[in-house]
Structures are given as structure tokens and as C-alpha cells.
Recover the amino acids of this structure.
């Protein structure tokens, strides 16, 4: 079953593309835009690092509904990776 979101009164299939920022090493983005054209330029350049298929969960336990809502309203969702713990 394909995931769909409502955008401007119509349904749209959401395929989620994952990107990594070169400008901010821990910054990541999820977008429905294969080329990352809608991602904020101030944090770029952006590099594609993967795709989340319609039947898979987004990375890092992100809720797919929240991700799809952000993509539908803003075109993308940004998130930061946690700093790695050094261990004792």
C-alpha cells in the first residue's frame, strides 16, 4: 500500500529521499524531492544518502506521519544527529 498525503486538495504519493548536509555535519533532511531542490541552501550543499520506500519506516524512529506532514507543508523535514557518546 502506497502512502499518500493531501497537498493542495489532492492526494500525492510520498517517496522519501534522505540527504546529508556538508555545511553542518550532523544535519540531515528528508524530502519528497529527489534532487533536494527544496532544501535550505544555507545548510548545503546537500548529498543524497538514501531512499525510504513506501513500506519502510524513516530513520532514527521518526514517525512517518510527522515526516509526511512536514514534506506536505514545507517540502522537507530537518533533523540533527545526536553527538556520539564517548563512553567511560
Amino acid at each position: 500500500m502506497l502512502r499518500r498525503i493531501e497537498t493542495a486538495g489532492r492526494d500525492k504519493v510520498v517517496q522519501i529521499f534522505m540527504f546529508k548536509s556538508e555545511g553542518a555535519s550532523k544535519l540531515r533532511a528528508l524530502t519528497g524531492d529527489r534532487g533536494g531542490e527544496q532544501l535550505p541552501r544555507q545548510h548545503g550543499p546537500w548529498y543524497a544518502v538514501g531512499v525510504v520506500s513506501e513500506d519502510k519506516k524513516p530513520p532514527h524512529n521518526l514517525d512517518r506521519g510527522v515526516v509526511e506532514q512536514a514534506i506536505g507543508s514545507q517540502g522537507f523535514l530537518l533533523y540533527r544527529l545526536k553527538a556520539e557518546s564517548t563512553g567511560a
